[in-house]
């Protein structure tokens, strides 16, 4: 049986997980149109700004069995003093030979660009989907969460990659939450003060609110060891289509005397729709959308961030108090939370207060390259 490697063949790249994972696995693909624009150097701001990318697919006897992107984030390397290439969108059958070929090409890409290490998965930056599932393979992901099969961590270790930066995803049942447990003295003071107001993120004021959200995100995550501040173009590229799926009761920017100080973005979970639609718009997508509307409602907290000068004052629990109340009032039965790193003790404590249960354990995997090609 022969192996063939394809570069930048979008159709083969898109088809790979559908070819290697049974339909009853928890895997959910990005929508085909979204994946295509992520990989398009004419559209993705990361690539327009000088980031290089190759979409790699391995075929066995003409059938796709493994895929990954090999890419660079020059701004991240410059900001953090790195010489690193990344891999992302890693999906594969349990085929050690195909994975070996795939990662030889990823590492060749890195060496060709003069990099000394490879790390991932990043799909495509730290503000998108990151990590490889290492526990909780049986659980279905919410929107913006990863899922990967149980054999991949072992295969990466066999290829010389080490697990780093442990993270977890969570979920909780809004109906079971006593949200008053979130009310620290600072949070109570905020909720009782006329100086603090919540501005819902809705379609009418979407652009204004999302620009405020970007500023809060950039300031609040500035000290994160993987973060690179997002330009307005990058943020719109990643989050602009959120306008069409927002439940305005769930997402808001919190202002202090009119100035944005924090943001929480919580959206309905679209994964049941995407999975039912086969990640492609068409007649099947319409049927999947109608079915989803009759299912119990699920949501997912995509991000929350507080400006540094407001941290420790109760802003975060006040925002979470509001979100949980909205979830309860609107009948959401389950809510997920995207990855939180083990080093983020404050966010983990917030999840504990609302009875959050871990869905997945995830890690990044890194390898130092011993030789760099000229």
Automatic annotation (TrEMBL):
It comes from the Bacteria. InterPro entries: Acyl_CoA_acyltransferase (IPR016181), BcerS-like (IPR039968). This is GNAT superfamily N-acetyltransferase. It comes from Brevundimonas faecalis.
